[in-house]
Structure prediction request, 167 residues.
Amino acid sequence: MGTKRDLLAIEARRIAGARMLKRKVPQAEVARELGVSRQAVSVWARQLAEVNGAVGKLEAKPLGRPKRLDAAQREVLSRLLVAGALQAGFATELWTVKRVRSAIEREFGVAYSQSGCWELLRNLGFSPQKPDKRATQRDEQAILRWKRQTWPGLRKKPAARAEPSSS
Prediction:
């Protein structure tokens, strides 16, 4: 992962630069004063012209790829997951990544990769769950009886060693 950037500081620097540009300070001087490239100041000047000089409109945009599900859709997904897999039309109550991906595609028409789905679930506050590998119908007493009574009779007995003859 790359380093985290202080978006508030970046936005504050951009707004300070925009205010300087509105006061007709030359772009090269704005760049020197704020410690940024002249190209960055040129971009700020163009953006300032696009918003008709409204400095407050120069907000920092979120970094990275845009989210495929907006906040409302993520809230609907959270409620769907909490309601359970049976409620979503699956045969058992277990949510798997494959099932979550299927539900997202069915509900929102958006396809997620397996790793993307894990990331989404983690961001929603869900942790990976591992199903119990034991059957719910398991009879502990019967298993204990089998281990004590039946299993010892089934195990191989060590072969009797022939005594070496002394000649």
